[in-house]
């Protein structure tokens, strides 16, 4: 079993581990399995890595199916890299996510904590994203059924869709995606049809040639629709394509285009140009309105974003007098959301453009008790900053997946605010940080929130109370 490429037959799948991999045990050895299997399946597994106590592999054949399975709803399931848990009923997804949070707190953090509060599931389990990015490629990924017979030339086909996992230059052509409300598919398919009719070139990421690169969509609960078409260079074909898109999809409220001649797909250092509309969309959380531009960060699930913020606000236990620090505040959404219950809000975020959005959002919502500052939290949150803006009664921290920097956890221990609410999109790094904060804090409440149905990703909110 320590050799690679060994095939294990008739392996019973018993559970899930980190990153959504299925879990099995063979002769006391833990096997992590990829390939869309669920607990209760019996599978053959080809090992790709094998160590003394554990191994990794991919399911090559399902011998018998679990009674937990349900029928996937997407024709691209198993090939596309998204929505990998479609075959698992939603109540089972939530149960495994809840268990994942508990396991991380126990096994990584070695923490003491009260029983987890029930995971807050999503009401909308399809078409829940407010942002999607599609990629154009002249190298469509071909399924086994689409591959030519041996000896025949492999056809070159265009695609607009999502990158195949671990294949940076191959894109799966997506006709219907269930992650976003219409007119998302209509916009994408309208561009595809026009491009084919007028022989517009799709980008080749290896050769750095071609014209059509990316399509970024935002569809808000307010009904506003933003489309940003990213192309490699200026071209006279642009006007015809954009005008045709507006004619065919009148639901678009803002249409932009961005010229990206770079080797990478990032647009944060580029300037989108407005072709139609006001250049941004507006989204609502409760009765707060947020302006979202083509480069703004915002929670990608509006419905569950509001639910997450309600849990955060509840955990903060505000009475109207507290000074609240919102670390990694982004465009200020959490700080603004809790502002009516706080005495003062101080937000800190690394990206200057996000802070500009935060200030504008505060003004738009008549929030006068919030201030926002651009810079690295580690550098800004020093003694002088706290002296100038007041000692925090509550700190809300919502770091990226990598968690908080060790210097920040040390600073939080030094500042010793009475309460910390830690919002995390990665319970593993959250558990690591909580272990460091355990020097002065006890865990009072824990509640997972499911932001991304049909994936293994989970958000988690923890309330910390200072012991002394």
Gyration radius, rounded: 24 Å
Q: Give the DSSP E fraction (strand runs of 2 or more residues).
A: 25-35%
How far apart the termini lie comes to 52 Å
Number of strands: 22
Biggest sheet: strand arrangement: 9-8-7-10-11-12-13
Largest sheet: 7 strands, mixed
Strands, helices and their partners?
Blueprint: E1 7-12, E2 15-16, E3 22-26, E4 29-34, E5 42-50, E6 54-64, H1 90-107, E7 131-137, E8 159-164, E9 167-173, H2 184-197, E10 212-219, E11 225-231, H3 237-248, E12 254-259, E13 273-276, E14 281-285, E15 288-292, H4 302-316, E16 323-327, H5 333-338, E17 344-349, H6 352-364, E18 370-374, H7 377-380, H8 383-389, E19 394-397, H9 406-415, E20 419-424, H10 427-437, E21 441-449, E22 459-466
Parallel strand pairs: 4-6, 11-12, 16-17, 16-19, 17-18, 19-20
Antiparallel strand pairs: 1-5, 2-3, 3-4, 5-6, 7-8, 7-10, 8-9, 10-11, 12-13, 14-15, 20-22, 21-22
Helix pairs in contact: 1-10, 2-3
């Amino acid at each position: 079993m320590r050799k690679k490429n060994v095939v294990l037959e008739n392996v019973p799948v018993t559970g899930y581990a980190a990153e959504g991999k299925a879990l099995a045990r063979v002769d006391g050895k833990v096997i992590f399995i990829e390939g869309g299997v669920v607990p209760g399946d019996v599978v053959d597994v080809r090992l790709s890595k094998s160590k003394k106590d554990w191994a990794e592999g991919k399911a090559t054949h399902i011998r018998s199916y679990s009674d937990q399975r349900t029928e996937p709803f997407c024709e691209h399931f198993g090939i596309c890299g998204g929505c990998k848990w479609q075959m698992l009923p939603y109540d089972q997804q939530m149960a495994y996510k809840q268990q994942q949070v508990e396991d991380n707190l126990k096994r990584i953090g070695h923490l003491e904590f009260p029983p987890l509060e029930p995971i807050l599931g999503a009401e909308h389990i399809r078409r829940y994203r407010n942002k999607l990015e599609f990629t154009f490629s002249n190298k469509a990924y071909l399924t086994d059924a689409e591959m030519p017979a041996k000896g025949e030339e492999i056809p070159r086909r265009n695609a607009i869709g999502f990158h195949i996992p671990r294949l940076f230059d191959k894109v799966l052509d997506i006709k219907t995606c269930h992650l976003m409300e219409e007119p998302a598919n209509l916009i994408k398919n309208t561009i595809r049809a026009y491009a084919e009719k007028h022989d517009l070139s799709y980008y080749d990421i290896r050769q750095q040639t071609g014209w059509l690169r990316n399509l970024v969509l935002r569809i808000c609960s307010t009904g506003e629709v933003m489309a940003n078409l990213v192309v490699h260079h200026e071209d006279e074909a642009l006007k015809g394509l954009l005008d045709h898109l507006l004619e065919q999809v009148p639901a678009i409220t803002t249409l932009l285009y961005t010229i990206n001649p770079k080797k990478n797909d990032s647009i944060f250092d580029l300037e989108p140009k407005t072709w139609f509309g006001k250049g941004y969309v507006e989204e609502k959380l409760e009765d707060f309105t947020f302006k979202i531009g083509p480069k703004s960060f915002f929670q990608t699930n509006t419905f569950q974003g509001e639910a997450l913020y309600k849990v955060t606000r509840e955990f903060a236990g505000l009475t109207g007098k507290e000074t609240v620090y919102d670390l990694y505040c982004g465009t200020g959404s959490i700080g603004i959301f809790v502002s009516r219950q706080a005495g003062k809000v101080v937000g800190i975020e690394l990206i200057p453009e996000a802070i500009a959005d935060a200030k504008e959002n505060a003004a738009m919502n008549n929030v006068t008790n919030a201030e926002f500052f651009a810079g690295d939290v580690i550098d800004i949150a020093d003694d002088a900053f706290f002296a100038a803006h007041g000692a925090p009664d509550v700190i809300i921290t919502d770091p990226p997946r990598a968690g908080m920097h060790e210097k920040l956890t040390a600073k939080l221990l030094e500042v010793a605010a009475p309460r910390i609410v830690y919002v995390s999109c990665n319970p593993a790094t959250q558990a690591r940080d909580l272990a460091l904060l355990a020097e002065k804090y006890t865990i009072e409440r824990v509640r997972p929130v499911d932001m991304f149905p049909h994936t293994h990703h989970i958000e988690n909110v923890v309330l910390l109370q200072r012991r002394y």
